[in-house]
Amino acid sequence: xxxxxPSPSRENTEADNPASRSSLxxxxxxxxxxxxxxxxxxxxxxxxxTVVASxxxxxxxxxxxxxxxxxxxxxxxxxxxxxxxxxxPLTSAGDxxxxxxxxxxxxxxxxxxxxxxxxLVAIGYVAVVAGAVxxxxxxxxxxxxxxxxxxxxxxxxxxxxxxxxxxHALRTAVxxxxxxxxxxxxxxxxxxxxxxxxMEEMIDGFQRDWxxxxxxxxxxxxxxxxxxxxxxxxxxxxxxxEYVRNRVNxxxxxxxxxxxxxxxxxxxxxxxxxxxxxxVELGEPQPGGYPLGDLVExxxxxxxxxxxxxQPGLSSAGLIALSEFAGLDMSADTAASIAFDDDVSxxxxxxKDPATPDREKIAMVVPSHSLHDYNSRSLVDEGCxxxxxxxxxxxxxxxxPDLSALDYPFVTVDWRAEPRPxxxxxxxxxxxxxxxxxxxxxSPVPQGQAQVSDDAALHRARERLDNVLPEVTxxxxxxxxxxxxxxxxxxxxxxxxxxxxxxxxxxxxxRVALGAFSxxxxxxxxxxxxxxxxxxxxxxxxxxxxRLPHGSDARVSDMLGRLxxxxxxxxxxxxxxxxxxxxxxxxxDDAIAKALGSAGRVHGLYILVLGDGSCGNRFPPGGPQxxxxxxxxxxxxxxxxxxxxxxxxxxxxxxxxxxxxxxLTRMVATIRGWTR
Amino acid sequence: xxxxxxxxxxxxxxxxxxxxxxxxxxxLTVGVARSLPAKVAECASDNKITLATGSDVxxxxxxxxxxxxxxxxPNVVPAELVEIADxxxxxxxxxxxxAQSGSCRYxxxxxxxxxxxxxxxxxxxxxxxxxxxxxxxxxLPNMLETGRFDGRQYAVPFAxxxxxxxxxxxxxxxxxxxxxxxxxxxxxxxxxxxxxxxxSVNLQETILSYGAKIVEGxxxxxxxxxxxxKALSALTAWNTxxxxxxxxxxxxxxxxxxxxxxxxxxxxxxxxxxxxxxxxPSMRDDEGPIFTVSPLPGVGVLGGFNLAVxxxxxxPTAAHDLIRFLVSAESQRDLLACGGYLPVLPAVYDxxxxxxxxxxxxxxxxxxxxxxxEALQEFADAxxxxxxNTVPRPRAAHYITFSEVFRSCAHQVVxxxxxxxxxxxxxxxxxxxxxxxxxxxAKDMCRG
Lengths: 676, 448
What we know:
The complex is a heterodimer.
Chain A: H1 8-16, H2 18-43, H3 46-53, H4 60-74, H5 80-100, H6 105-149, E1 156-162, H7 167-182, E2 189-195, H8 199-207, E3 222-224, E4 232-234, H9 238-245, E5 253-260, E6 264-271, H10 272-282, H11 292-302, E7 306-308, H12 316-325, H13 331-337, H14 344-352, E8 362-367, H15 368-376, E9 395-398, E10 405-406, E11 409-415, H16 422-438, H17 455-468, E12 473-479, H18 491-498, E13 511-520, E14 523-527, H19 538-544, H20 556-563, E15 572-578, H21 591-598, E16 602-610, E17 641-646, E18 649-657, H22 660-674
Parallel strand pairs in A: 1-2, 1-4, 7-8, 12-13, 12-15, 15-16, 16-18
Antiparallel strand pairs in A: 4-11, 5-11, 6-8, 6-9, 6-10, 13-14, 17-18
Helix pairs in contact in A: 2-4, 2-6, 4-6, 8-9, 9-17, 12-17, 20-21
Chain B: H1 8-35, E1 49-53, H2 62-71, E2 79-83, H3 88-100, E3 108-112, H4 116-121, H5 130-136, H6 141-146, E4 148-149, E5 152-153, E6 156-161, E7 164-168, H7 177-187, E8 189-190, H8 197-209, E9 215-216, E10 219-220, H9 227-245, H10 253-262, E11 266-269, H11 273-278, E12 284-285, E13 288-289, E14 291-295, E15 300-301, E16 303-309, H12 316-326, H13 329-335, H14 346-354, H15 373-388, E17 390-391, H16 399-415, H17 425-436
Parallel strand pairs in B: 1-2, 1-3, 8-11, 15-17
Antiparallel strand pairs in B: 3-16, 4-5, 6-16, 7-11, 7-14, 9-10, 12-13
C-alpha cells in the first residue's frame, strides 16, 4: 500500500508551473504592499492630498495606479534583488501562515481554486486601474482641448484685500500668479485686489454682511457695502489678524489664518537732506539697526524731527507703530506722532509733495517696502504719480531690531451665507502657497529677528491711544445754504454720510455737537447744537441732519458772534462745513479772523471747504503755526490748509475736494493738535 | 462524455475587457456627477426688491430719490438700494461673484452697459418680457441694443451716457478729430486714459474717430489692412498731443475734471461734469460761464446703465413693476435734474430741449443757483446729438478680458511706453481674438 498521493491540484500546479506560481504570488504580494504604501504615504502629503481629493474616487484610483506602477518598477532586474531582501521576510511570514492553515480535501480544493483564480485577479486588477486612469485622462484631455481651442467658461470672481500700501505689490503678484497658472488657457478664476478697510470697520463689516455702519432713519432703504465682499485678506501681521478674528462673531463668517506670504519690518524713513546728519550722530549701526531708544533720542531730541505714523484708528501700520513707541513715549510725544493721514500711502504722497510744509522735519515710521516703493517707482496706485525722487529727495531708511516685524498671513474668508466651492478653495490655497514661495515684495528686508506684534499688544496700543490723546470738544456748524443741498454736489448729504466715520479718529472723551447757520427771512438764523455726542453716539447727529433748516449764505463772522455765548463748555473749537459760497459775503478779508478773536468761548476755528470750492486768499500767512503736520498736498481732491492766528487762536481753512470722510478725520486730528 | 475544453486565454480576455470597461464607466460617471453644479435651493421671497448698484451719493443721489418715491407709493413691494462701490469694475466683480455663488441677495442689477452682454451670456439674468418694454418705450435704439444678447432682451435701459467736448469759450470748435488733436496740443487737452474701463472707452473713441474699425459683429478686424494704419495714426497723434503737453496718462473722470478747472482748454468727459462746472464760481466770469459744451467730434462710445433681473430672483413680477417705474418719463426727467445722467426715452430729450431746467424744485428758489438758460439750452442740444451719435462697445461674453487686452497695447502707445512703429498688429489682433474667447495669451501681445 502506497502512501496517499498529495493533493492533485497542488501537485499538478507545482509540477506544471512552479516558476509562474511563485512569480505570480510574488507579484500579488508586491502589488498589495506598494498599493498600501502609496495610499498611506500619499495621504500624509498635504499637497498631493489636496489634488487627489478632487479626483473622482478620491485615493482609490491613484493608490491602485501607483501600486501597479511600483510593482512593475520593482520587477526590474537591478531593483528586484534589493526588493526581495526587503520583502523577503513578508513572504516567509506568509509561508508560515500558510503552513499553519489546516490541510485536507476541502482546504486543498479552496487553495486550488485560489491558485487558478489568481491570474484572473491580477489581470482584473490591472484592467481596473487602466480603465480608471483612462476615465480620468479622457475628460482631462477633452477639457484641455476646449481650454485651448473653444470659448471659455466665465471665470469665477474672487476679491482679495490688503492694506492700501500693499495693494500695488499684491496686484502685481496676483497677475503673475494667474499668468503662470493659466498660461494662455481659459482662466478659471479672476482675482481682483482692493484696499482693506480699517480694522474697526472690518470687525463691523464681517458681522454685518460687509455692510458699512451707516445710520439710517426709518424710511431710508439704502445700504452701502465696504466694497466687493472679500474671499481672502492679507493683513500686515498675525497680531492684526487675531485682533480682528477674536472680535468677529463666527456665526456669519469664518476667518482662517494660513501661511505667511512675506516678511517686512517697520523702519524710520526721512529725507536724505536730513538723514545724513542723523546717521553721523547715530554712528555705525549694530546688526539689525539701531536701538530704538537711540533712534528716538536723536530724531526727536537732537534733530527735533517729528516721528510720525498714520492714524492708528485707520491704519494697521499706524497701530503697530504706536505699540512700538508706547514704552518710549510721553503722552505728548504720542499725540504729536500721530499724523492725520489715513494710511501709509497717504503719508508718502504728502511727503512727496514739495509744497508740504516742514517735510524735512518728518521722520516716517512705515514698512520698509513702502520706503522702497517711494524711492523706486511712480506712486500711481497710491494716488500721487510723478517722477521718482532721488538724491536728497529720496527717503533713507533707519532700521531697528526693536521695531516690529510684519509677517503678512494669508487669511481666507468664508461667508456662511455663500459656501465656497472646492475650485475656489483650491485656487486660494494655490495663491497662498505661491505667494509664500515667491513673496509679495521685492525689496530687501532689514536684518534682525524682530518680533511680530500680537493681538494683546495691539489691544494695549488701542487703549493707550484712548488714554493719552488730548480730548476734543468740537462744534460742527453746517453751512445751511441751498447750494449745499442741490445736485449734483449734494455736499450736505455727503457730509451726513461721512459723519459716522469720524468715529475712527475719536477717543471716548471726545464730544461733538452739530448746528447750522444760514440767512432766512432777511436775517441770520443760527441753529444751536442740540447737545453733545460721544463717539458711540454719532448716530444722533446723523439723524438730526435732515431737521436742520436751510436758507441762503450767511457770514461766518456773524455766526461766530451769535454762537459764541452758547458754546458749552467754553474752549470748544468750531468747525464750519461749507462749499465756500459764504466767503463772498464777508465785509473784509480779515473779518472772520477778527470775529474769532472776539468770540470769547471759541478756542479755534477750522473751516472745511467741501466739493470744488476753495479757501481763496482770505487767511493771511504767518503767525505761529499750529503744532503738528499741516494738511498739505496739491493733488486734486486733497485738502490745503492756510494757517494763521486770530487773536492768538488757531484758524485753519482746508479744501476737502470730494473725499469728505478723509477730510473730516484730518480735521479732527488737526484740532486735537491745538489742544496739545 | 467530454465537453470542449475551456481555453484559459478567453477567460482572461473576458475579465480584462469587462474590468476595464466597468472601471472606465464608473470613473467617467463619478467625474461627471462631481463636475455638475450642486443643486441649490430656490430663493425664498423676502417681500423686498433689492437693487445692486454703484455709489449713489457720488452721483447726486438721484437713484435714492427714485427709490424713496417708489416706496411711498401704495401697495408696492418695497425696494432697497445696495450701493457696492464707487467704480464700475468693483460693482461688476461683486455682482458677478454673487450671481456665480447662486446668492439670493439681489433681485435687480443696475449693470453698466459694458457688462450686460457678459451677464446675459453667463446666465446671471432673466429675460425681460416684451410687454415691459412696450409699456414704457420707445427707448433710444442704441441703448435698447445694449440689453440684447443672442436675440433676446435681458435688460431695460435706465440711464444713458455720451461723451461731450468741453472747451474754453474763446477757443475754436474743432470739426474733426484731427483738428481736435491739433487744437488740443496747442491749448491743452484732458481725457481719461488711466488703466480702467474709462481708459478703454477713450482709446476706442480715439481709434474709431480716425476711421478704423475694431470689431465687426463678434469678429476682430483691427489688424486688417486699412484699419491698422488708421488705428496707428490715431494712437500716434494722441501720443504726440499728450507728450507735447506733458499731460498725465492716468487721469479718470474726476481728476480730469479737476485738471480742466485749473487750466481750461479742451476736455473730453461725460455729461456729469457739466452741472459741476457750471455751478463752480471759478468757471464763471462777468459774462457768464467761461466754458461751453458740444458733442465730441468723431465717434463717441455709448455709456450708461441697464436694469436687469437676477436669474434667481424669486419675484420677477415685482421687479418688473419697479423697473417700469424707474424708466417712466417722470423718473427719467428727474434723472436729468443736474445729476448728469441722460434719459433713455427720446421723448424726454425733446421735452427737455423745449424747456431745459434742473428738475428739482429747490434749485429754482435761489437765483444764484440757477443755471443760465442759454447754458442749459446748449447742454440740452449737445446731449441730444451726442447720445444718438454714439456706438456701443463690443458686446461679448468676455468683454472685460477684451477690454483689458485692448487697452494694454493701446495705452502703451499713447503713453509713450511703446513706440508706435513697434506695435505688432498681428500679435495684437491675435491677442484680441483670444480675449474675445476669454483667454489671455502668456506672451507679449504688443511687440513682435
